[in-house]
Design brief:
The structure holds three protein chains of three kinds. Chain A is α+β, with helices and mostly antiparallel strands. Among the domains of chain A are: 82-307, Periplasmic binding protein-like II (D-Maltodextrin-Binding Protein, domain 2, 3-Layer(aba) Sandwich), CATH 3.40.190; 360-381 and 435-586, Dipeptide-binding Protein, domain 3 (Roll). Helices cover 26% and strands 17% of the residues of chain A. In chain A, the strands form seven sheets. Chain A has a five-stranded mixed β-sheet, covered by helices on one side. Chain A has a four-stranded antiparallel β-sheet with strand order 4-5-7-6, covered by helices on one side. In chain A, a hairpin with a 4-residue loop joins strand 19 (607-608) and strand 20. Chain A is globular and about 75 Å long. Chain B is an alpha/beta fold. Chain B folds into two domains: 1-92 and 176-182 and 202-262 and 279-368, Rossmann fold, CATH 3.40.50.300; 100-171, no CATH class. Chain B has helices at residues 48-55, 82-88, 100-103, 110-121, 126-139, 145-148, 158-170, 188-205, 216-222, 240-245, 250-257, 324-335, 340-351; strands spanning 6-17, 20-32, 37-41, 64-72, 75-76, 93-96, 176-180, 208-213, 225-230, 233-239, 308-310, 313-318. An eight-stranded mixed β-sheet of chain B has the order 6-7-8-3-9-10-12-11, with helices on both faces. Chain C has a domain at 96-271: MetI-like fold (Orthogonal Bundle), CATH 1.10.3720. Chain C has helices spanning 2-29, 35-40, 46-55, 62-76, 89-124, 129-143, 146-157, 172-175, 179-213, 216-223, 228-240, 242-259, 261-267, 272-281, 285-313. Chain C has 15 helices and no strands. In chain C, helix 13 (261-267) crosses helix 14. Classes of the chains: A alpha+beta, B alpha/beta, C mainly alpha. Chains B and C meet through helix 2 and helix 4 of B and helix 10 and helix 11 of C.
Chain lengths: 622, 368, 320
């Protein structure tokens, strides 16, 4: 590693150690696509051989608890906002998983150092897949008991049974428990349509999902219409499948407009949520009914307090770095705070690849970006290093050259860090931009001068707070060089999605602040939804295929790749689709970011590589 | 003859302002005997209020330069320290002001303002003070005093309010009461009542009163002696009878002639004093009244008259350069209805008799 | 007086209706996030979104939604559910009010104490060194943005990141549970919030005192032989303070309505102001409405209290 200048905090490009990127414990978790995660590094394209530094290797995450880890103490988790839902059945936001991994026990789980495939958690062993991949059978552990309920009161003193797991998944169909995964990953489970119809008739009662059966109290079976078992098994690591007894929860699930189970939940993990004040704090205590050794989790600290409302991330990071017993929750160290941590508190900073990407979505459905040459021109003109700098530069992530990020199967197959080689990908091979190349594509599009003439107005809707707003500003400046007149409308984050970028009819030409974070370490979890034409028709007012790419070849390829069970073949298939999408210049990928986590001096943090966040069940205090 | 209660000796009060030094009071002297009433008459800006405020030390914190002596009960009020002077204020010397509505605190009941005056100088119980307050209200002629003592100033009529002010001033049985324009804000019938009240109180309580006013009609009723002030000085001082019967100063003549009379014909015009009161910063040279005097001579522009007794009448002093017989002739003429315009010829004739030598020519100075 | 109060109360209720209607309108006219889509979560199909929209009552015409909402508020004191947190808005607001009340109460006491006394001293000693210094300082404090003052005070005095670590810093209120530690945690926020306001009150009080001390009844009080101190306090201040009382009512009302947002943000105090800001960020209409109504109520209420107090302070005022 080349050293970099400590005094200036400026990062001098060093040699890229490709090995460390490929081997580093990847597949860490990430926040939801709509949050502002940031981390970075610099990469070069295959075409340029300039050396870049690999910051990530300097701040590697610890993924196992040290043998000398002590029990006891209170850990304070410093938070900007709140969880999206305290109800594990509805949780979608990545930071919420930090809590759910410690309080819930889905059928499958993720130990901090294992990201290849989920490991049995509530399940007593690996599931049995039979019937040509269309039947999945799980056996669950016996004697697992529920914790006291959140907020006190009478709980549920019967042990966990398989019917509780079935009920937990079924309640995800209620409008009062808005689970964002159930139709995505469980679409092939028999009886979904009938269950959805029953819910439509009576939204207060959890329907019976006939495709999920419980022959006895310790067995649960999933019957699929297609052999897409890998996706289903992965999805059973979501908190959705953490058991919820119907006898206890039905009275809460029948409330409108939304279930109140979350505020009265009973948990089965090593910790339970004892107190929840929305927007203020969450308190987790040791679950008295969890037996150490009943699953792979340890539990060192006695109490965890999530303190919310820290609006200024810079001062929150300072507070963590200089204080005691604190870690960060839903924000990363970025910009100045990141530099501070890297230079003055290097032992308290970890960079973990997030398993997510950021890209600039170009609206393929309407002019001018329905023309592939214009899309290629704009991609070639973009200085992605400058975009990355708005998030903190090389400390915050590395330049993306396609869509599947490091650590997800398919990454290497799609070209790895350097990206796809070959002349047909030339427009993506210049991270700092190549105006001449861009102009040549404009000429191919019919603009003889190499710049846009005539009607050159394009609309862009972005975040109105940094760093998203800064990224948009920088991009706007770069597009002007090609003659485009960019009308930029910064709006609130939530508004950006629900009123503009995710609404098919209303989407502007450019949505610069989008990205995708894996749900699992699988190609399907990375590039299916954001680039599948079926997504557009499936939810036109809540669309996550922001480029509005609807290419029949790609759609067909995605449909068949879903069914591949052999891991090698699966990775190769998704890698190929990734390159196809890149080749179409559907969007401009620019960042594979890091989770930059900070902790206080007396904390021994363990990072869960699956989501890139601190694993509360393994973190301890000195 | 006993010592006068109050003796003002050559009092001067000056204020430094951005525009120059204001000579508010420019050397006045007078005295007040126990049980007597003195009236100080003049236009606004003549210095009459400043002189009485100075007596109570109320001009000290405005940056005034004070010279002269004010002897009260053997002590010089000009040099008396603040805390001693405070013991006299509202106690041995009391003052009432022009506008009783704005001079009483609007937020406090009348009774508590009275008891406050009492408690400041006497150590009495609350109930004793309250009883005294009721007694005082009764003394000044306010009906139903037990009920009205708990009312606020705005619940009283103008005349009643002035009675309340008088009651407050009398709370500690002062030896001297200074009344600064006590009736100016009241209408005529009420005026008469208040003046009668003051008169009555004086004979009952034996206190001295100084009445300051611009209204000669007011002082005619109740004063024993009158001092006429102009431009910070006393220009004439005499027993009341003499002021009205045989005034000696042209300013006094002007004041008397400008009072409308019920028996003058309707179409006869009022006779104001021409001109305006002078600036107290740049005062006219010579006799300060000369720019407005109908009987002015050249010499009057250079020589400043002093307040001197009228020959043959020790109690009557005047500051005028005209000789006394001339003055008497002019007054007789004015009293019988002639105008100052016609009477001026008397002065001119005297100026230019058939004589051998003429008065030396001097340059004229315009009034400020 | 009674009729006057009744009239004011009725007018206050009308105001609350008007305010809530305006908020409704603004929410629907300006671009904001779609609450049904936000609650539906990711990848929800249109049918699911429609179902959620229906359960939230968002598919009704605006006036119908408004009527339903107001009916709930008036007859059941029910402010609906927060779209974001899935808890009743009333519960949410009540859980945030204590922090804001702490903040406002302490700040009011400090700014009244400092502001009024400096105003009185400056007025009585006009053009002295004290007067000039305090008026210049007050101008500086009024001009300084609250959040800047807050951040600077944290940088200087916060016990975790400050240069001279003597007072609890950011987030300490939320982390404290007993009275004493809450009190300590509030000292910096109180000072910061009170700084600019005490400067304003000092200037107002000074002007009011200067006016009052030139009144005739002050001259009378001195002529009565009262000590100057009594003249200033019992006669001067008593009159000068009445217009200030009106100010206090307005300031306290608006602060309780969420005006302390900047202070709450800098010090991470979980109060009503923060809640309102968060609610606006995610277009949580019910919470926004609820806070606005509470805020409007506070303002109306405190204005009424102040007007009634005014009648007691100034006996000349008579409401008919």
């Amino acid at each position: 590693m080349r050293s970099r200048s400590r005094l200036l905090g400026v990062l001098v490009p060093g040699l890229l150690a490709m090995a460390s990127l490929g081997v580093a414990g990847c597949g860490s978790s990430s926040k939801s696509t709509s949050s502002a995660a940031s981390s970075g590094g610099t990469t070069t394209s295959a075409g340029e051989s300039a050396a870049v530094s690999n910051e990530q290797a300097k701040f590697p995450p610890v993924v196992t608890a040290p043998a000398t880890a002590k029990k006891g103490g209170t850990l304070t988790v410093i938070a900007n906002g709140d969880v999206d839902y305290i109800d594990p059945g509805a949780a979608y936001y990545q930071p919420t998983y930090m809590i759910d991994l410690a309080a819930d026990s889905p059928l499958m789980g993720w130990p901090p150092n294992d990201t290849a495939a989920p490991v049995p958690l509530l399940a007593s062993g690996q599931p049995v897949v039979s019937n040509g991949g269309k039947t999945i059978t799980f056996h669950i552990k016996t004697g697992i008991k529920y914790s006291p309920p959140t907020g006190g009161g009478a709980g549920w003193n019967k042990p966990v049974v398989s019917q509780d797991v079935k009920y937990a998944i079924e309640r995800g169909l209620l409008p009062g428990v808005p689970n964002g995964f159930v139709t995505l990953y469980f679409a092939d489970v028999d009886g979904l349509a009938a269950a959805q119809a029953a819910v439509k008739k009576d939204p207060k009662v959890v329907p019976n999902w006939s495709g999920i059966t419980t022959p006895n109290s310790s067995t649960i079976v999933f019957n699929l219409s297609k052999p897409s078992s890998i996706g289903v098994i992965d999805a059973l690591s979501l908190p959705l499948s953490s058991p919820v007894p119907q006898g206890y929860a039905a009275k809460y699930d029948s409330q409108t407009p939304s279930s109140t189970y979350g505020q009265h939940q009973i948990d089965v993990g090593p910790y339970y949520i004892s107190n929840y004040s929305p927007g203020k704090q969450i308190v987790l205590l040791r679950n008295p009914n969890w037996t150490p050794g009943e699953d792979f989790r340890a539990a060192y600290v006695d109490k965890i307090i999530v303190q919310e409302g820290f609006a200024d991330e810079n001062s929150a990071v300072s507070k963590i770095l200089t204080g005691q017993s604190m870690v960060n929750f839903d924000f990363d160290a970025t910009g100045e705070a990141l530099k501070l941590a890297a230079t003055q508190y290097p032992k308290q900073l970890t960079l973990t690849p997030s398993g997510g990407n950021r890209f600039v979505a170009l609206n393929n459905a309407k002019p001018p970006f329905n023309n592939i040459n214009i899309r290629k021109a704009v991609t070639a003109a973009t200085d992605r290093v400058a975009l990355l700098d708005t998030r903190g530069g090389p400390l915050s992530g590395i330049i993306a050259t396609h869509y599947i990020p490091p650590g997800i199967p398919g990454f290497q197959q799609a070209g790895g860090a350097a990206g796809p080689t070959g002349a047909q990908y030339d427009f993506i091979q210049h991270p700092t931009g190549d105006l001449a190349l861009a102009e040549s594509y404009m000429k191919k599009a019919g603009y003889s001068s190499g710049k846009c003439t005539g009607n050159c107005t394009v609309t862009m809707v972005s975040d109105n707070t940094p760093p998203g707003s800064n990224t948009a500003q920088v991009l706007k400046g770069q597009l002007t060089a090609l003659g485009f007149n960019v009308q930029l409308h910064p709006v609130e984050h939530a508004t950006m999605y629900t009123k503009f970028c995710s609404v098919v009819a209303n989407e502007p030409n450019i949505c610069p602040n989008v990205g995708w974070v894996k749900d699992f370490n699988d190609g399907q979890a990375m590039i299916d939804v954001p680039f599948n034409g079926a997504t557009i028709t499936g939810s036109p007012t809540n669309n996550s295929n922001w480029p509005q790419l609807n290419n029949p070849t790609i759609n067909a390829a995605l449909a068949s790749a879903k069914l591949i069970t052999d891991p090698t073949a699966r990775a190769a298939a998704y890698g190929k689709i990734d390159d196809m999408i890149t080749g179409l210049a559907a969007a401009i990928p620019w960042d594979w970011d890091y989770e930059t986590n900070v902790s206080s001096k007396n904390v021994l943090p363990v990072i869960n590589e699956f989501n890139g966040l601190t694993d509360l069940a393994f973190t301890s205090l000195k | 003859m006993s010592e006068p209660l109050l003796q003002v000796e050559d009092l001067r009060v000056r204020f430094s302002t951005e525009d120059g030094i204001v000579h508010a009071v420019d050397g006045i002297s007078y005295s007040v005997d126990t049980g007597h009433t003195v009236g100080i008459v003049g236009e606004s800006g003549s210095g009459k209020s400043v002189s009485s405020l100075t007596m109570l030390g109320l001009t000290r914190n405005q940056g005034a330069e004070i010279e002269g002596r004010i002897m009260f009960d053997g002590r010089d009020l000009v040099t008396l320290p603040d805390d001693e002077l405070r013991k006299i204020r509202g106690n041995e010397i009391a003052m009432i002001f022009q506008d009783p509505l704005s001079s009483l605190h609007p937020f406090y009941k009348v009774g508590s303002q009275l008891t406050e005056a009492i408690h400041t100088h006497r150590d009495v119980s609350k109930s004793a003070a309250r009883d005294r307050a009721v007694e005082l209200l009764d003394l000044v002629g306010i009906p139903d005093p037990r009920r009205r003592v708990d009312q606020f100033p705005h619940e009283f009529s103008g005349g009643m309010r002035q009675r309340v002010m008088i009651a407050m001033a009398l709370a500690n049985e002062p030896k001297l009461l200074i009344a600064d324009e006590p009736t100016t804000a009241l209408d005529v019938t009420v005026q008469a009542q208040i003046l009668a009240l003051l008169d009555d109180l004086q004979s009952r309580l034996g206190m001295a009163i100084i009445v300051i006013t611009h209204d000669l009609g007011v002082v005619a009723e109740i004063t024993d002696e009158i001092a006429v002030m102009y431009a910070g000085r006393i220009v004439e001082r005499a027993p009341t009878r003499a002021i009205f019967g045989a005034p000696q100063h042209p300013y006094t003549w002007g004041l008397l002639k400008s009072i409308p009379r019920l028996d003058t014909p309707r179409d006869e015009e009022l006779v104001p004093i021409s001109g305006r009161p002078p600036s107290l910063i740049k005062r006219p040279s010579g006799c300060h009244f000369h720019p407005r005097c109908p009987y002015v001579r050249d010499a009057h522009r250079k020589v400043d008259p002093r307040l001197e007794p009228v020959p043959g009448d020790e109690g009557h002093a005047v500051a005028c350069l005209l000789n006394p017989e001339l003055r008497n002739r002019i007054w007789r003429g004015l009293a019988s209805g002639e105008t100052s315009a016609t009477l001026r010829h008397l002065v001119v004739e005297e100026d230019h008799p058939v004589r051998a030598h003429a008065a030396p020519r001097t340059s004229e100075e315009d009034p400020a | 007086m009674f009729r006057y109060i009744v009239r004011r109360v009725l007018w206050g209720i009308a105001m609350l209706f008007i305010v809530s209607a305006v908020v409704f309108l603004i929410f629907y006219i300006l671009p904001s996030a779609d609450p049904a889509v936000l609650r539906a979560g990711r990848n929800a199909g249109p049918a699911q979104i429609a179902q959620i929209r229906h359960s939230l009552g968002l598919d009704l015409p605006i006036w119908h939604q408004y009527l339903n909402y107001m009916k709930q508020v008036f007859f059941h004191f029910n402010f609906g559910y927060s779209y974001q947190y899935n808890v009743p808005v009333r519960q949410l607001i009540f859980s945030r009010l204590p922090a804001t009340i702490w903040l406002v109460t302490g700040a009011v006491i400090i700014w009244l104490g400092i502001g009024l006394s400096i105003g009185i001293i400056s007025a009585v000693r006009r053009r002295s060194l004290i007067d000039r210094t305090s008026m210049t300082t007050s101008l500086a404090l009024i001009s300084a943005p609250v959040f800047w003052l807050g951040l600077v005070s944290l940088y200087l005095f916060a016990d975790d990141i400050g240069r001279f670590p003597i007072l609890p810093g950011q987030g300490s209120y939320a982390a404290s549970s007993d009275f004493v530690s809450r009190f300590e945690a509030m000292i910096l926020p109180w000072l910061v919030l009170a700084a600019a306001t005490s400067a304003i009150y000092a200037r107002y009080m000074r002007a009011s005192m200067i006016d009052t001390m030139s009144e005739d009844y002050i001259r009378t009080a001195r002529a009565k032989g009262l000590p100057e101190r009594t003249v200033i306090m019992r006669h001067g201040v008593r009159s000068a303070i009445t217009p200030i009382v009106t100010l206090i009512g307005l300031d306290v009302g608006t602060l309780l309505a969420g005006n302390a947002i900047l202070t709450e943000t800098v010090f991470n105090i979980p109060g009503v102001g923060r809640l309102l800001y968060n609610a606006i960020s995610v277009s949580d209409l019910t919470t926004i409405q609820g806070i606005t109504l509470f805020g409007a109520f506070f303002i109306v209420f405190f204005n009424l209290v102040v007007d009634i107090a005014y009648a007691y302070l100034d006996p000349r005022v008579r409401y008919s």
